[in-house]
Design a protein that fits this description.
Elements: E1 4-13, E2 16-26, E3 31-35, H1 42-49, E4 57-62, E5 65-66, H2 72-77, E6 80-83, H3 95-101, H4 111-115, H5 119-138, H6 154-167, E7 172-176, H7 184-201, E8 204-208, H8 212-218, E9 221-226, E10 229-234, H9 236-241, H10 243-253
Parallel strand pairs: 3-8, 3-9, 6-7, 7-8
Antiparallel strand pairs: 1-2, 1-4, 4-5, 9-10
The structure holds adenosine-5'-triphosphate.
GO molecular function, one term: ATP binding
Keywords: ATP-binding, Nucleotide-binding, Transport
InterPro entries: AAA+_ATPase (IPR003593), ABC_AA/LPS_Transport (IPR051120), ABC_transporter-like_ATP-bd (IPR003439), BCA_ABC_TP_C (IPR032823), P-loop_NTPase (IPR027417)
């Protein structure tokens, strides 16, 4: 499993420096949180890493590759999956169908086998469905597999999006505010689910999240950003003691 190295990452929008030579590392199997006030640059990191934004400078090494020059599909093929701040599900599709969409990347039957519905394609399809049911089971969604996404509770949809990301069998998972909008009582449960999946699958996870209780209870490492720069990193205990963090973020939020 490769580690993630973000090195001197820069992103500018006209005169705004969204990311200002940002560097941090995520070890194999580590759950690393990126926190900071609104506009600190957290989503911009994800957008640069996944090829949605073109960084103005720096490198993002994952294993032996620099992800920055790659188009989004090649970043996904390199083993990086993400979820979005706002749900990106198809409301008319069922939970299972939405989750299956995350797996087609790994479907190796090939275009002709698929078009002609050859046995190879049918085998690949069966294996994908098996994998989807395993993921749904793991996320407590099995009973809802055939329900359309539209109308399901927000927490269920958040878990569906997580399930879809896992279908790509990622080695690195980027979670953008997975707990945003969740009822207070469901936040801790989602945190435990995320930490459990990371540990079970040996996944590296980068978590952007404003729920400090969740961040501090499940992260092994916390990187604090402000104005596109890293102002501190360490264990949850270390960052909560850092005066600059207290001034820039935790103090402001308290
Ligand atoms: N597409 C864009 N065009 C112009 N400016 C942008 C764009 N995306 C982000 N920015 C700016 O870049 C900076 C970082 O924004 P970003 O969304 O990465 O912050 P964030 O830490 O994710 O904030 P939040 O916690 O509110 O989601 C902000 O000043 C923002 O206004």
């Amino acid at each position: 499993m490769p580690k993630l190295i973000v090195e001197d990452l820069e992103l500018r929008f006209g005169g705004v420096r969204a990311l200002d030579r940002l560097s941090f590392e995520v070890e194999e199997g580590q759950l690393c949180a990126l926190v900071g006030p609104n506009g600190a640059g957290k989503s911009s990191v994800f957008n640069c890493v996944t090829g949605l934004y073109r960084a103005s400078g720096g490198r993002v090494l994952f294993g032996d590759r620099d992800l920055l020059p790659l188009p989004a599909h090649a970043v996904a093929a390199a083993g990086v999956a993400r979820t979005f701040q706002n749900l990106a599900l198809f409301p008319r599709l069922t939970v299972l169908e939405n989750v299956l969409l995350g797996g087609h990347l790994n479907e190796r039957a090939g275009a002709w086998a698929c078009a002609l519905h050859l046995p190879r394609h049918r085998r690949a399809e069966r294996s994908l469905r098996r994998q989807a049911h395993e993921v749904l089971d793991r996320l407590g969604l099995a009973a809802l597999a055939d329900r359309p996404a539209a109308g399901l509770p927000y927490g269920t949809l958040k878990r569906t999006e997580l399930a879809r990301a896992l279908m790509a069998r990622p080695r690195l998972l980027l979670l953008d505010e997975p707990a945003a909008g969740l009822p207070h009582g469901e936040v801790a449960e989602l945190g435990e689910l995320i930490a459990g999946i990371g540990a079970d699958l040996g996944l590296s996870i980068v978590l952007v999240e404003h729920h400090m209780g969740m961040v501090m209870s499940i992260s092994q490492k916390v990187v604090v950003l402000n104005l596109g720069r890293r102002i501190c990193e360490g264990t949850p205990e270390e960052v909560t003691r850092d005066p600059e963090v207290i001034a820039a973020y935790l103090g402001a939020a308290a």
